[in-house]
Amino acid sequence: MAFRVDEMDRKILEELQRDSSQSLDEIAKRVGSSKTPVWNRIRKLREAGIIKQQTVLLDAEALGFEACFFVLIRTSEHDAEWQAAFLKALQDRPEVQEAHRLAGDIDYILKVRVTNARAYDVFYQALISEVKVHNVTALLSMEEIKSTSRLPLVDKT
């Protein structure tokens, strides 16, 4: 049976997305509840897999990762062995922040964060030495306009 998320759960999740370092007292106050029920709901949301993990967001540029590339990959390989090798290659590279398999002309898109273009080339050369790809197009992001990991859980209207 699927876990049913109600309006109070959504409010709690919205607060956790906004700032997961808040105390239970702060969250309870902001959602109009008390500490124990909020804690019990958070525990159930974790157990249900709705809360996957808690982490911190770092400023990539402040840490020297000034280049963000979106890498479009086309491949002529689609068998399970190639896919497993490709998945392993991506998982072994911390530069890959996101990877998506797509429908359409492009097979995969990667979000790759590196210090500069030279570091991207090192990443690229390593990737193509491990897995065969038909075509790779790298697009350098000139400016990050919006970036969020928050889901729109609570209607703000």
TrEMBL record:
GO MF term list: sequence-specific DNA binding
InterPro entries, per database record: ArsR-like_HTH, AsnC-type_HTH_dom, Dimeric_a/b-barrel, Tscrpt_reg_AsnC-like, Tscrpt_reg_AsnC/Lrp_C, Tscrpt_reg_HTH_AsnC-type_CS, WH-like_DNA-bd_sf, WH_DNA-bd_sf
SUPFAM superfamilies noted in UniProt: Dimeric alpha+beta barrel, Winged helix' DNA-binding domain
Domain HTH asnC-type: start-end pairs: 5-66
GO BP term, example: response to amino acid
Keywords linked to the UniProt accession: DNA-binding, Transcription, Transcription regulation
GO cellular component: cytosol
UniProt name for this protein: Leucine-responsive regulatory protein
Organism of origin: Shimia thalassica
